[in-house]
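Quick log. Single chain, no ligands specified.
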Amino acid sequence: MSLKIQDGEAMNIFLARVRKAARDLKNAGRPINDDEVAYQMLTDLPANYDGIVQSLYQLSDAEFTSKKVEEALVAESHRISHLSADNASNQYLSAFAAGQKKTKTFIQRQNNENKM
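-> predicted structure:
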């Protein structure tokens, strides 16, 4: 089974595709082990998931389940989304503040010119 997350694809959609592929194989009489499903979930993820992937690879065989991997990847996806949103907000605020400073400087310059 070889699946890859698509550019811009939500993590929960990707994981649903992996689960569906595993079900389809089972229904076709070719079931795969749960740990193979878990490994597939971790294959070819974007680089910003490298940390969680390495942490999950450290789990014991008993703990390394598709359910645990899925929960961790969804949580990491939310964390990454919040970081991206926070970063975008910070960039907007910085740009806004820079614009405010430019506006304030312009007004001060105009006032100084008017006094002359």
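The two ends are 78 Å apart (CA to CA).
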